[in-house]
Design the sequence.
């Protein structure tokens, strides 16, 4: 997927133990932040001094979904370790309930994802069920073939473990991108499950067809062929079968409730049964939707509203193989469509975060962290009641990955419209993954990712991968002393923003599917300004490449070149071939995405030189001339 622009989603497994007291860790709070997230419109900040704040627990392996249990404990999933854990909401003590043996985990999008608790859990009715969604690998490590499944476990109260797994549905689409995976138990006693479109026609999956608009045939449903469930929200009976009252779309009834979604990581019900959904847009237009049975939400033909602004659908899966995605302008042989050309009957979002015009400098401020999106990771309906947080009454709580902020979106009285812009609350230098609220409505718990990039809240920069509370649950209590958490600073218009600083980044830029580019540095030295030649000083050029490697490559290849999601670089003889290094960095190789459209020739030469002369490698300079030739 492409956007029109100027310039072109852990720790090692550890034993879980019960801890006697609260975690003695500090939230990095300040009221004197000088930089915060960039948004194209001014967003009001809430009064965070109304809350006390502390870290409840740490050491979690990318916590993904939290639920408040009937035992007044927090039940959560950990994506990368494949564990279901129970956390005491007062002490932070952790208890392991389940470790999956068959979970397939990747850098960002695969693993143990959503979870729902049966509402009669621990009520003595025999329905002590927990439903989880996760990815498995039907192939090999070298040639993975992932799929998603929903499995029901029974909670054994005497053992305090999850036992007796029963697969409800299997063989659903999964891949290395945009798997979504939220699981919700509906007020109609049905299961709801969100599936992304696996990032097809986008980034490293550029040539794979996007199936968000595809619908199953009756033969496919009869044969349990679920491949068209990509980019959908599903509604299932509790045994995994298709409900008889599901919508019939194009003459076929399936598990599909709605379609045309990109990466719908957030779904939650309001008190009247309204199903709210949040999903990631490309480089603009994250969406807040109300899900209607049979509804089409437009992706990949439309991002946000049908306004022909800042987005064009480019169908790379039908483009000639010899056309490179960096070609500018693209030839007419590459199918390209304005949003207004979409002929489907689309349901508009309640809100889009954010709507910008074509000339917005997407990718130019500090990379995707500063692009006009918020990266909504979940959604939670909030009703203050008599004693809750009055400022949040009748609103949706939307945690954000990029901004480390809880956006509170007020709703109209009937809940069918967004009431103005959201307000930013409880901002820290973290990636917020999920949010729940205690039954009394006064304590807010936010789970954080264990790694990745976020808006920088302290110092001169705008983006960073230094997370202050990775793999944690943060706790904010309304009406108690000990607040003072700094929120969003004023003046967050990009025109007034200071220059960003580079730092270690996550696996990829979720807007482009490529590894994120480091921010440019005004103090580019002479080696970069005059070009890098075979006569350049290796140590000097490698020193320039080191922070850029950390920003674009280290999360996959390891800070020491030891490998991980990416290939081992330490002692790798293939790096002796300068042309191979340049071509790989520019055009990608295997699962490694291309980022020739993200980095300059100098950037690539510096990173390549650093790689070719670190960790036992001694292969000399990668010149800008060699990079130019590879382009």
Sequence:
């Amino acid at each position: 997927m492409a956007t029109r622009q100027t310039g072109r989603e852990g720790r090692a497994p550890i034993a879980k133990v019960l801890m006697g007291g609260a975690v003695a860790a500090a939230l990095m709070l300040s009221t004197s932040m000088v930089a915060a997230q960039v948004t194209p419109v001014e967003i009001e900040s809430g009064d965070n001094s109304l809350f006390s704040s502390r870290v409840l627990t740490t050491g979690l392996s990318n916590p993904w979904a939290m639920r408040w249990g009937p035992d007044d404990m927090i039940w959560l999933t950990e994506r990368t370790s494949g564990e279901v854990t129970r956390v005491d909401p007062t002490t932070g003590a952790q208890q392991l309930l389940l470790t999956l043996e068959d979970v397939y985990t990747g850098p960002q999008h695969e693993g143990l994802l959503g979870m729902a608790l049966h509402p009669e859990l621990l009520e003595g009715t025999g329905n002590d069920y927990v439903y989880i969604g996760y990815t498995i690998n039907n192939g090999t490590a070298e040639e993975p073939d992932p799929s998603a499944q929903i499995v029901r476990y029974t909670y054994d109260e005497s053992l305090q473990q999850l036992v007796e797994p029963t697969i409800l549905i299997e063989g659903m689409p999964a891949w290395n991108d945009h798997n979504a995976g939220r699981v919700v138990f509906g007020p109609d006693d049905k299961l709801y499950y969100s599936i992304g479109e696996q990032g097809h026609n986008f980034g490293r999956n550029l040539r794979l067809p996007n199936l968000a608009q595809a619908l199953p045939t009756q033969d496919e449903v009869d044969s349990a062929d679920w491949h068209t469930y990509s980019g959908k929200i599903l509604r299932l009976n509790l045994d995994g079968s298709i409900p008889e009252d599901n919508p019939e779309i194009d003459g076929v009834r399936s598990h599909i409730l709605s379609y045309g979604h990109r990466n719908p990581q957030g779904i939650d019900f309001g008190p009247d049964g309204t199903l709210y959904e949040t999903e990631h847009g490309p480089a603009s237009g994250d969406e807040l939707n109300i899900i209607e049975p049979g509804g089409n939400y437009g992706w990949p033909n439309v991002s946000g509203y049908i306004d022909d602004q800042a987005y064009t659908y480019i169908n790379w899966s039908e483009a000639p193989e010899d056309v490179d995605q960096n070609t500018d302008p693209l030839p007419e042989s590459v199918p390209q469509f304005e949003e207004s050309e979409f002929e489907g009957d689309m349901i508009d979002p309640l809100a889009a975060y954010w709507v910008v015009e074509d000339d917005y400098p997407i990718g130019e401020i500090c990379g995707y962290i500063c692009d006009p999106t918020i990266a909504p990771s979940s959604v939670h309906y909030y009703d203050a009641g008599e004693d809750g947080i009055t400022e949040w009454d009748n609103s949706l709580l939307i945690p954000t990955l990029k901004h480390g902020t809880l956006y509170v979106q007020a709703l109209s009285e009937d809940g069918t419209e967004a009431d103005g812009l959201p307000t930013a609350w409880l901002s820290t230098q973290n990636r917020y993954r999920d949010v729940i609220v205690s039954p009394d409505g006064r304590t807010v718990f936010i789970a954080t990712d264990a790694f990745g990039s976020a808006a920088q809240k302290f110092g001169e920069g705008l983006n960073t991968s230094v997370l202050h509370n990775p793999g944690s649950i943060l706790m904010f209590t309304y009406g108690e002393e000990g607040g003072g958490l700094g929120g969003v600073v004023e003046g967050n218009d990009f025109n007034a923003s200071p220059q960003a600083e580079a730092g270690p980044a996550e696996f990829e830029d979720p807007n482009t599917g490529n590894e994120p580019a480091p921010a440019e540095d005004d103090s580019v030295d002479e080696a970069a300004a005059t070009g890098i030649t075979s006569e350049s000083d290796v140590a000097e050029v490698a020193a320039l490449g080191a922070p850029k490697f950390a920003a674009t490559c280290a999360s996959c290849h390891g800070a020491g070149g030891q490998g991980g999601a990416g290939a081992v670089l330490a002692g790798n003889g293939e790096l002796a071939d300068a042309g191979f290094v340049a071509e790989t960095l520019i055009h990608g190789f295997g699962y490694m995405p291309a980022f020739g459209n993200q980095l300059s020739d100098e950037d690539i030469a510096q990173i390549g030189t650093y790689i070719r002369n670190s960790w036992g490698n001694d292969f000399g300079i990668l010149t800008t001339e060699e990079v130019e030739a590879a382009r």
